[in-house]
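okkk here we go again. third time trying to get the NAP bound version out, last two times i messed up the smiles copy paste (missing a bracket lol). double checked this time i swear
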Amino acid sequence: MASVPTIRLNNGVEIPQLGFGTYQIKPAETKVAVLAALDVGYRHIDTAEMYGNEKQVGEAIRESGLDRGEVFVTSKLNNGFHAHDDALKAFDRTLEDLGFDYLDLFLIHWPLPAVGGFVETWRALEEIYGSGRARAIGVSNFQTSHLRRLLEETETVPAVNQVEAHPYLTQDEVRAFDAEHDIATEAWSPIAQGKVLHDPTIIRIAERHSRTPAQVTLRWHIQRGDIVFPKSVNVERMEENFHIFDFDLSEEEMNEISALNRDERVGPDPDTFNWIP
Ligand SMILES: NC(=O)c1ccc[n+]([C@@H]2O[C@H](COP(=O)([O-])OP(=O)(O)OC[C@H]3O[C@@H](n4cnc5c(N)ncnc54)[C@H](OP(=O)(O)O)[C@@H]3O)[C@@H](O)[C@H]2O)c1
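finally!!
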């Protein structure tokens, strides 16, 4: 079986290009799901304080018998903790809940531009990075205007920008800005929570390769250079989503899928989302 490639982040840290997402996995189901994903071969887990399942993610990694260093773990700062000292305390809680002494990647979950912003928050993440307790720091749901502000007002270029992206929301502007500044793009909801799987173009390409629509969509992300972490609580689907490294889409197929873009989100708009728990 072909192995999962890694992407080198702008500080030299390597991240597996395919991981496992845990949004909407209930805490009571998380340990079983993450253990199953690790058994399938996933070595990159994406969680967040907002998902309420960091504790169970940590338990699963410990119970798997894998060394901590074999699994790349990302978590995110919840909305409501953007003030500098709140962010530092929230990071301590995340580490405590996971039961780890370091995190591989820590992200600001949402920019919240309308309710105080993110610059002092980013300075807190820079301190965390400086302490060595996060191997890399980044942002999530940042539009180019938010990234520009960070680049102008702070020192550290984010290692990643995690944004919603899939064939119906190709995010060309954000991806181009990320690439220009050596920020890796992570694509959340890579199969649009299932919505793109009924698309006739994707189905036709999948039939041609004797693959499933989910595999073709994830393969499209991999070939464009996105980091992805599809979520599933179903072991067969975890396996299906993992086996995408032994076929290639042609340039024409890649372009056909990219042309499906209609700037349609399954999640909130980062410019206006201001939800605080
Ligand atoms: N930073 C952010 O703001 C943000 C926001 C959203 C998500 N994320 C991250 O991105 C990850 C992935 O996004 P997501 O969970 O929203 O959506 P997704 O991975 O695009 O889709 C997940 C949905 O598709 C189903 N599914 C998975 N594999 C499938 C397959 N092979 N065939 C058919 N259906 C399949 C799952 O159902 P079953 O579980 O029943 O299989 C689930 O309902 C999240 O888990 C989270 O880690 C980040």
